[in-house]
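[Meeting: bench + compute handoff]

Bench side (C.D.) handed over the final construct sequence. Compute side (W.E.) agreed to return the predicted structure before the next meeting so the bench team could plan truncations. Sequence as handed over:
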Amino acid sequence: MPKKSTKMSGLQCLATENVWFDKQRYDDAEKCFYEGANGTAAKSSSHAAGDQELVSRMKGMELENQTLHKVVEEMRAALKKLELRVASLEKSPAAVTCAKAAPVKAAPVKPVKVENGDDDDSDIDLFGSDDDEEAERIKQERLDAYAAKKSKKPALIAKSSILLDVKPWDDETDMGKLEECVRSVQMDGLLWGASKLVPVGYGIKKLQINCVVEDDKVGTDILEEELTKFEDYIQSIDVAAFNKI
């Protein structure tokens, strides 16, 4: 009788425990726990792989940076050497030019001394005498040819174009006679050109005439002196324009 009472008490305990009735929920919770654990491990391994790749890339960049630094230092050293060389050349350009342009001098030919007992013939120049005469003759011929060519070339004559303003006394002055007086001035190196009458004011006109002169023979002072001799017609003379030809 007591044994049966004990068994009934165990069943009653199991009946009061409801874990067996929520087994599905506990299974799901266990599944989620293991899945979360596996996912965390996967994420950890992924982060570890990413960190390793980043470290590898940083090491590669450091090596590349060191190589670039080395190349830059070599270029700086080469540039410094080049600047020093240029500076030294700029300080002594004349010496470099002279060194390059220095002509090569031929060694002088010494006369051969022949000893045959005769004092008059002791020093005989076996070289150079005939060559010197020939070189002198050729040099003189070239100089003569150059002088002849230069004498045939016509010398350049400097000329100027002058525009003169010839002013009369008043409006009653005969301008045709005035121009005849101007053109009557003739001299070596003077050539009269075109002319025209230009109104001045109050009915008065001036004669504007062009001429070409040789600078060595005719000047503006001579022209003015010759033209002012016609004092009955000409009051004054001005140089309006002066141009070299």
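W.E. noted at the follow-up: Helices lie at 2-16, 23-91, 93-101, 129-152, 175-183, 220-227. C.D. will use this when planning the next construct.
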